[in-house]
Write a structure and sequence with these properties.
By secondary structure, the chain is an alpha+beta fold. The protein has eight helices and eight strands, in the order ββαααβαβββααββαα. The longest helix has 15 residues, at 234-248.
C-alpha cells in the first residue's frame, strides 16, 4: 500500500496475506541537478525504506544490520549524468574515438579522470519520437568526492555544464567544445546509497530472504541474503522475489540457476584476450 503519512504505523493483515518488504534502497535520498545547478544532497531524505528496516532490525538481530549500508556515504555515493545532444557531432566524435558505432559496445572509461568517469552513447531511440539528429549518452563516477582534473571541485558540487566540460576536456574534443556545450543538456544525479550494496559487510548484515520460521513474511531486493548470487543486478532482485513467493506459497519450484560466467570458456577466452 502507498506510504501516505508518517502517522501511519500499522496495517492490518488478513490470515492469508503475504508481507514482502523491500528493506533499504540504493536510490533513497536521490537528488537531481540541472545544467546550471548541482544536485542538492538528499541525505536528510532517507525515506521509509531504511527507517522501516532499522526498526525491524532493532527488534530482531537476525533481520540484519542496516547501519553497515547507511553509515558510509563517503564510500557509497555515486553521481551519474545524462547528456542530450541536439546535434550528432558528439556521437560522431565518439565513434572516431572508440572505433565503434554509436550505441554499440560497452562503456568507455576515462582512466585518467580523478572522478573515474565512464560514459556510453545509447542506441536510439531512447525516448518516443527521438529525431535522427538527437543522441543521448549516460555516464557515472565512482570517485565523485575528488576534485576534477579541469574543474577544481568535487563532482558532487558540479552543475551539468561543469561535468560535461570535464568530460569533453578528457576526450580532447576541444575544437568542438563550445558547439557541444551550446547544443547539449547535461543533468546530474546524486545517489548517496547507490554503491551501498557493495560495501564491506558481514554475512549476517543482510537478513535471509525468508527468515527462519517465517510463514507469511519475506525480504526482497538488493539487501537480503542470497547465496551464490551477485548484487547490483535486476536478476538479484527478481530472484529474491521468486524465492520468497515460491517458499511462502509452498510451491515446488526454484528460481533459475545463477549464471557462472567464470566457468564459461568463451568468457574466459575474452577476458584473457583483453588482459594481453
Amino acid at each position: 500500500m502507498p506510504w501516505k503519512s508518517a502517522m501511519v504505523n500499522s496495517i492490518k493483515i488478513a490470515e492469508h496475506d503475504l508481507v514482502l518488504i523491500t528493506n533499504g534502497s540504493q536510490f533513497s535520498g536521490l537528488a537531481i541537478g540541472s545544467m546550471t545547478a548541482p544536485p542538492k544532497s538528499g541525505l536528510a531524505r532517507n525515506g521509509t525504506s531504511w527507517m522501516l528496516w532499522k526498526t525491524l532490525a532493532q527488534r530482531r538481530p537476525d533481520f540484519g544490520n542496516p547501519d553497515a549500508f547507511t553509515n558510509h556515504t563517503d564510500q557509497s555515493t555515486l553521481v551519474s549524468f545524462t547528456v542530450t545532444c541536439t546535434t550528432p557531432i558528439f556521437a560522431e566524435l565518439m565513434e572516431n574515438f572508440s572505433g565503434r558505432e554509436a550505441g554499440r559496445g560497452g562503456l568507455v572509461t576515462l582512466k585518467g579522470s580523478n572522478w573515474l568517469i565512464s560514459i556510453a552513447v545509447f542506441q536510439k531511440p531512447i525516448f518516443v519520437e527521438q529525431s535522427r539528429e538527437v543522441y543521448v549518452l549516460w555516464g557515472y563516477s565512482y570517485s565523485p568526492h575528488k576534485a576534477g582534473n579541469f574543474v577544481a571541485k568535487s563532482m558532487t558540487e558540479c552543475s551539468g555544464a561543469e561535468i560535461l566540460h570535464e568530460v569533453l576536456k578528457h576526450l580532447k574534443f576541444d575544437a568542438h567544445l563550445g558547439h557541444i556545450m551550446n547544443s547539449s543538456i547535461c543533468i546530474p544525479c546524486l545517489m548517496p546509497y547507490a554503491n551501498s550494496v557493495m560495501l564491506r559487510r558481514k554475512r549476517a548484515d543482510r537478513p535471509l530472504t525468508v527468515p527462519e520460521g517465517s510463514t507469511n513474511f519475506a525480504f526482497v531486493g538488493q539487501f537480503c541474503e542470497q547465496s551464490d548470487d551477485v548484487v547490483f543486478t535486476i536478476e538479484y532482485s527478481v530472484r529474491s522475489a521468486m524465492t520468497a513467493v515460491y517458499k511462502l506459497l509452498n510451491l515446488d519450484k526454484q528460481p533459475p540457476p545463477v549464471y557462472k560466467g567464470w566457468r564459461d570458456p568463451r568468457v574466459v577466452y575474452r577476458v584473457f584476450k583483453a588482459l594481453i
